[in-house]
Amino acid sequence: MITCVVEYVIDPGEIEAFERFGRRWIELVNRHGGTHHGYFLPAEGASDKALALFSFPSLAAYEEYRSLFGAHPDFVEADRIRDESGCVLRYERTFMRPLLPDQGEEHPRTDG
Predict the structure, then answer these.
(1) pLDDT, tens only, 51-60
(2) What is the CATH number of the domain that holds 6?
(3) Which of 64, 68, 85, 94 could be disulfide-bonded to 17 (CB atoms 3.0-4.6 Å)?
(4) Is there a contact between 81 and 21 (Cβ–Cβ < 8 Å)?
(5) How many helices (H) does the chain have, and how many strands (E)?
């Protein structure tokens, strides 16, 4: 399993648009082979940070999902929410592997 962590810098004045954007992507990830773990939005005070976490069974499955970007009409529509509202100022993706309670102690190293 591979988990994508997306760190967003958002426009706090466009939080409602960001929530629409997030709900749409949750639906798309889940429909196209992934498991979306949710968006995490500012809760207290002024903040321009938000996170999203979603997993795919493998990097190959994630790449298949990514192949739909810019091509599939539902993906284009979801990006339009972001682009037209300006709710996302920038973002950065990081790929991680989860350590889950039901995993054994041994896990193969992936750093060579």
Answers:
(1) 999 999 999 9
(2) 3.30.70.100
(3) 85
(4) yes
(5) 3, 4
